Amino acid sequence: MQTDAATTLETVTLNGSTTGLPALGFNIARHNIGGSANNVVDDSGTEVPMKTSDKMPGFKFMEAFWLDWMSKDPTSTSWNRDTQKDVLVKLRSQLDTLGLKDVTISSSDENSPSLALSALASMSSDTDVMAAIGKVNTHGNDGQSLYRGTDREPLKKTGDPVKQKTLGFGVWIALDINQMGVSAFVYWQTLDSGAWGLVESNPGDNWIGTPNSKYYVLAQYSRHIRPGMTILSTDNTNTVMAFDSTSKVLVTCDLSSFKAVAGPITAWTTETSGTGVLYESSKVDLSGTSFSASIPAASVMTFEAQGVAV
């Protein structure tokens, strides 16, 4: 089943063709829908009903809350930041009054991390606004410059730093976790056309093809770094280290700083070219608290060590 491939940790068959597929274990889903409405707007005394575009695929359509669809610029780039700050504080106050203190408010959902950081920086001097924000949502459309500089400092003032809606892969995921403090990833669409989807698909005509190579790259992270794990610091921003304190499992490349490692150690390899191994497991020999492994070029490897004492 297609949902099993996205939400479980089983080995599944996709659409009857791709067998032995490692499921991704997602616990957050993004629905690819289109905002529309059927409300009527008063245009200088003339009532004009909204019409759904012929380009709107039927599977995407939903009734939304676009009150005035004739507004000239409804995009977030036209928002007044002072008004936004006022709304954030008022919304937090009202939620608290209704007993919804556990409901977290996000700052503006921007097209790229650099825009999200810029928006957050513009609000960072207002303590009331920063107290109202619990997370930052952003798409991942950006280069690597965003991982450097002082713009990242306001992220430390939010309770749940960043959730990405779209993302680069390989090294970018590692940088997102290590330097941006990303706490969750929400992928664009598991099933979508061409390179957009983790699995090539045309949702409009119910066709589902085969996984793109990035499916297996993301599996390296989503299958092994699970909810509740603690991200530990490393001296290499291309390396992500996560520890499960309950099961004593460490997902890492460096064991030298730990008291003891009982083992065993299992490795998983994905070669990003799409022509090599996609998600191949192997055993790694352990010597005390160290091991060595040969990592292919342009690949992602996960090492999972059992019985680790911090």
Automatic annotation (TrEMBL):
MF-aspect GO terms: hydrolase activity, hydrolyzing O-glycosyl compounds
InterPro entries reported for this sequence: 6GAL/EXGAL, GH, Glyco_hydro_b
SUPFAM superfamilies named in the record: (Trans)glycosidases
Protein name as it appears in the record: Uncharacterized protein
The organism's taxonomic lineage, starting at the top: Eukaryota, Sar, Stramenopiles, Oomycota, Peronosporomycetes
